[in-house]
TrEMBL record:
One Pfam family linked to the record: DAP_epimerase
Amino-acid biosynthesis in keyword set: yes
Enzyme nomenclature, EC number: 5.1.1.7
Species, as recorded: Thermoanaerobacter kivui (Acetogenium kivui)
Gene Ontology BP term (one): lysine biosynthetic process via diaminopimelate
Main location: cytoplasm
Family per similarity comment: Belongs to the diaminopimelate epimerase family.
Active-site residues annotated for this sequence: 69, 69 (proton donor), 218 (proton acceptor)
PANTHER family: DIAMINOPIMELATE EPIMERASE, DIAMINOPIMELATE EPIMERASE, CHLOROPLASTIC
Protein known as: Diaminopimelate epimerase
Gene: dapF
Amino acid sequence: MKFTKMHGLGNDFIVIEALENVDYSELAIKLCDRHFGIGADGLLVVEPSGIADIRMRIFNADGSEAEMCGNGSRCFAKYVYERGIVKKEKMAVETLAGVIMPEVFVENGKVESVKVYMGSPIFVANKIPVKSDKQKFINEPVKIDGKAYKLTSLRVGVPHTIVFVESLDENMIKELGPKIEKSFLFPQGTNVDFVKVEDKENISVRTWERGVGLTLACGSGACASAIASAISGKTERNVNVHFKAGQLLVEWLEDNSIYLSGGVEEVFTGEIYL
């Protein structure tokens, strides 16, 4: 099987074109294993679409299928454009979360960066979903292991829960992340974004990704973190989101639409025997 390895700020993916008679969930678990497989945060599958230019399916490293993925969609757009599968610089991509609209920026025939329309944030608790008697779950105190944390949840394609912190301590993230991800509050689980506000236009983020664990970057997490920061009055609506390997720009427009921009890289191509 031929594959391509790509990443957006270290959030890495294996990209393959549609195969017949294959269980993609099992395949993702095998391929994403960093010791016995290729190694990645997720598997992206290129499929034809009846409603858009192309269809993207996303499988997390644990085999679960995700509705959407910001960095994955940017890698996906670079892949299909450079291979001539979609010959538009602005394309429509079908996902489980709906149709998204990546735009590629090309230099000398190569995609250097991708801007993607990420839809609009959803704050309604039962649509995220969050088990709460409140309509929105913003800055809500929740006790975990006897300690109170203020959580903000929203949906940007997938569920995200934001925790504002003074420092991005990795041990704390690894301990707290899975407890929030699997909390009874979130019947479908949740991605957990730990956010340190630097100033009105810059935040630093580490994401504990549902079904994956601690990742180097997360596109939808960048969007959710920026929006949570803005509605809390901590930042402006346009925010540079800093991860370990670089930064993404999130623009939350007055019409409620979200745009995510940043670089993507193709690392290598290869073949693996199944």
